[in-house]
Give the backbone structure.
Amino acid sequence: MITKHGKPLNVSLRIEGNRLPHAVNAMKMDRTNKRILALLQNNARLTATAIGKEIGLSRPAVQDRITAMENQGVIRGYHASLGEAAQLTHALMFVTIAQRPCAAAIEWLQTLDGVDTVFSLSGEIDAVVSVSVPSTRDLSNLSDRLLGSKYVSAVRTSIVLSRSMKRSAL
């Protein structure tokens, strides 16, 4: 391992002009890190102390491992999973963009209240916009706003009836 002042350095190697897909000292996903990730996936609000008690490590050791996984991009964020009490209306809006290039329209769509994700596509439909709004009235108003803009020529909306989420395997 290459170090500077006692700290490991991320060093990439080049072989015949191709960059290797990971750093030399990439994060080692040992059994303990996988156990930490599994616990966090089930409950992202667990404290380092609670995780430590579950897996037999001290709070500082758990925190160091979590911080290292965050720094390496293994853990990219923590999210709230909303229950039915939130009662949001989720929908997909299939958008045809009126002008080219589409970049300005895609950027504008991302700024709208209620928009969760914008997928830019190839084909007849230029974008799929995933939205979460308080009511169907708000969904209708959002659709009207899209159609009234200079960016959008057509919108087809489908309300999401159910959603399942696949967790990535460790």
User: Anything to note?
Assistant: Strands lie at 3-4, 7-8, 14-15, 18-19, 89-97, 115-120, 127-133, 152-159. Helices lie at 31-42, 48-55, 59-71, 103-111, 136-147. The chain has a mean pLDDT of 82. The domain at 3-71 is CATH 1.10.10.10 (Arc Repressor Mutant, subunit A).
